[in-house]
Amino acid sequence: MKAKCVAGCALCSAWLALGGLCNVVRKVYGGHSGESATARRSSRLIGGARPDVRIYECSAKIGDSHSLAWRFRAPEATPADRAGHVIGKHYAGPTRESVDGSTVVGKVKEHEPGPDPGAIARLLLTSKTVNGPGTFAGATSVQRVHTMGGTAPTATCDASTIGQFGRVPYIATCIFYHAKG
Fold this sequence. Notes:
By secondary structure, the chain is mainly beta. The chain has one domain. The protein has one helix and eleven strands; from the N terminus they run ββαβββββββββ. The protein has one helix at about 35-40, and strands at about 5-10, 20-25, 45-50, 55-60, 65-75, 90, 95-100, 105-110, 120-130, 140-150, 165-180. The strands form two sheets. Strands 1, 4, 5, 6, 7, 8, 9, 10 and 11 form a nine-stranded antiparallel beta sheet that branches. A two-stranded antiparallel sheet has the order 2-3.
């Protein structure tokens, strides 16, 4: 099934954004192995900076209750259009919800490391559920590319900080695809 890009979203930390702007990219040259030729032919958008974060909790490691680590809990992001207007939100699931009420919940299909050790992974997600008419109606996949920041806090996670949350700024570009036709 061919796909085409239907919306871009900027997930940008205000302190990381250059010149108060961050890229909302539909046009991608290289990057994730799951990228389609259709994505490379799509248009490029620019969006306003947003104070987006990834939330981590200091808790026991999975499978090892005697060791503690920062565990990712959820993103807290407000995607924007090229004019900087909020077009929705991104939260646990991972769920993207448009202001029109449509939603898409993804499931990781592929992932690869970010461009540097401090950057979150680049992802290709397939749509697990899509609800409502609107922006995300018919969405088949979401691709997260061009990541910066967002990895687990560097602060100590030990018995004195167990249960505490860390909020880490990040930037990522998302490309949304839907079935063509």
